Amino acid sequence: MSARARDPVLGSTRSCQTSSSLRVGKKPIKAEEPTKPPKANAMAQRKMPATEFRRFYDRGDLPISVEHTASGGRIKWKIQPEQLDYHHYLPIFFDGLRETTEPYRLLAEQGVYNMLEKGGRKVLPVVPQLIIPLKTALNTRNPEVICRTLMVIQRLAGADETVGQALVPFYRQLLPIFNLFKQKNANLGDVFEYSQRRHTNVGDLVDETLEVLEMNGGPDAFINIKYMIPTYESAIIN
């Protein structure tokens, strides 16, 4: 058969093409490979924006300074903590708990402990204002910040016999991170400092804090902890 054949209608010639020589104008579309979903990485550290504590301190709006001693730096109060307006100052100091840079970390941590120690009945009315700074600090996923915050929660729960019970309605905001780090046992050694130096790990500190919350939270504490952390077992011996 001739390579060119006459079209009986148009009287013209056309090329005879076999199926093997057909070409498509566009390249064949390949099926897209499914993309793997990103890892959740729930324990990955979050970015920590500048704190209100740092902003107030840099402006000179906090009645504190650093006092240098032979054993290191410590907080120096220009006004005694018990004389301060707790509604204004205590949430600011709690916001500084997520600081990891000196002297902000030192001043915020020591300031919180001093105010809780001296505050007495002035602490209870401020509890609702402390939940967001505590939750923000826990949500950093930074083990150093989490451990510092857990220690403060323990001190807060024992600051007054009514404060521990006042924290119970806020367990749903605070305890999700407890549940996340409850089984984390990475030893942090001396990377953080409390009122006394201690070696611990995040998982053990979570368990210890839950026990403090239960013992200071009144009759409704255990059932609310158990709801958020099903693996928790009561520390109170009946």
UniProtKB/TrEMBL annotation:
Highest taxon of the lineage: Eukaryota
Key words, A-Z: Cell projection, Cilium, Flagellum
Biased composition (Polar residues): 12-22
Positions of region (Disordered): 1-47
PANTHER family: PARKIN COREGULATED GENE PROTEIN (PTHR21207:SF2), PARKIN COREGULATED GENE PROTEIN PARK2 COREGULATED (PTHR21207)
Protein name, per record: Flagellar/basal body protein, PACRG family protein
Organism the protein comes from: Blattamonas nauphoetae
